[in-house]
Amino acid sequence: MIRYDVLIIGSGLAGQSAALRLADHCRVLLVSKRALEDSASSWAQGGIAAVLDNQDSIEAHIRDTFIAGAHLNDARATRFVVENGRRAIEWLIEQGVPFTKDESGYHLTREGGHSARRVIHVADATGLAVQETLTEKVRRHPKITILENHIAIDLITGNKLGLAENRCYGAYVLNNDSGEVVTIGAEHTLIATGGAGKVYLYTTNPDTSTGDGIAMAWRAGCRVANMEFIQFHPTCLYHPQAKSFLISEAVRGEGGLLKLPDGTRFMPEHDDRAELAPRDVVARAIDFEMKKRGLDCVFLDISHKGEAFIKAHFPNIYARCLELGIDITRDPIPVVPAAHYTCGGIVTDLKARTGIPGLYAAGEASCSGLHGANRLASNSLLECLVFSEAAVQDILAQPRRAFPELPRWDESRVTDADEEVVIAHNWDELRRFMWDYVGIVRTTKRLKRAQHRIRLLMREIEEFYANFRVSHDLIELRNLVVTADLIVRCALKRKESRGLHFSRDYPDLLPIARNTTLHRRLGTPGQQ
Description:
Number of domains: 3
Distance between the termini: 23 Å
Shape: globular
CATH topology of the largest domain: FAD/NAD(P)-binding domain
Largest sheet: 7 strands, mixed
Low-confidence stretches: 524-528
Number of helices: 16
Radius of gyration: 22 Å
Number of strands: 22
CATH superfamily of the largest domain: FAD/NAD(P)-binding domain
CATH architecture of the largest domain: 3-Layer(bba) Sandwich
Mean pLDDT: 94
CATH class of the largest domain: Alpha Beta
């Protein structure tokens, strides 16, 4: 067993910012299942929303967040995040993040659902710039130990150890290079593993987004809420050579127009806000037009803004599209919706605490109450910063505790897998039927069909997990099928259409907004 004061699982913005804030006070272990740089945070293009302009206000940002979230947002959590926005941005500036400036100071852009320009950014690659800045500092800090290419298998809890209190004591982690399972003990553990976009066939997420933290926390006994709210980004580049390349919300914010193949705009027919409507509205409109007309994609056109404007505002999007033969200064961009953001997750309070003592969650893996039924653009990186700091403050305020001896990982009854192809087939089947049955528009019949297939897969995967040595792919598949089950269970519980969850069987909005919270009795079969 190796032991640290704090174990952080996940190396995106939430994980790295927490590590940097903690490291001057205690010994920190940061676990990344690939390289530190490989996270969803680094893929974020648009920016970070915060009230930074005198023409803007806290109340306006809160109001916009509630409107986008279909009023399912938690009022205390939303105010907490928005009021701490400026401080979070100032911390990033202190770290050296090179936010884009103009003649009046930092340039603020506007994105769909926002009533003002409040999105601070680094050109069109904000997440990458933030991640690179923090990663350099994390790598240099003497009190942060980094385990790259390691994937967490499961949390170690009092329940698993047979103790009276179901406290978190760390995690079992697989070294992908050696195949060794490492036992890591920690007084405090922070889950910052991101979302679950890879549960769908088409996603803007990196390969790391497999719902690991959500599934581990669920198995450990945490409450999970609002998993039905999967945000489908309206504009993912449609090209056979472009894997998961996002066309930023800011393209529409700066005047980009959505068009049919014949050049006709269609968003004004779906919503008065047209291209500046929230993402769920735009994604459903595109989905409707594609299905109605039998289209493979629609087109996002910003060529009318001129070459100089486009190259200055969207240099990375311009360069990537040009590599694929699309000159966005002249040509429209082919786009389709794709799974983008998990609005639900592990239930946390304003200190990022889960229901298990010693276990925290921040960022996309959590359900803090900020996003409600739909995330407002560029609120996600802000949530990472605010709640990771909240977790740090709570961790540093806790007294030291007695720590039990943790058992080593037991491999005495398993063998090497004889048919790895089973994992690949199950992975592909899961992602395809989730796309077909649990996508942008849902029906009860489709959801039940998906649930039946998930449960068959779950039994097969658990049997495989029980009999063979763990591997990276098996761990991710196991987590994905649990996450898929949680999404479907939440979707079946919601008897209305709200935000990102649209049901043909329940098209109306209920008068009272309620969370769909799942509780799991420890020791029950089916999701061990």
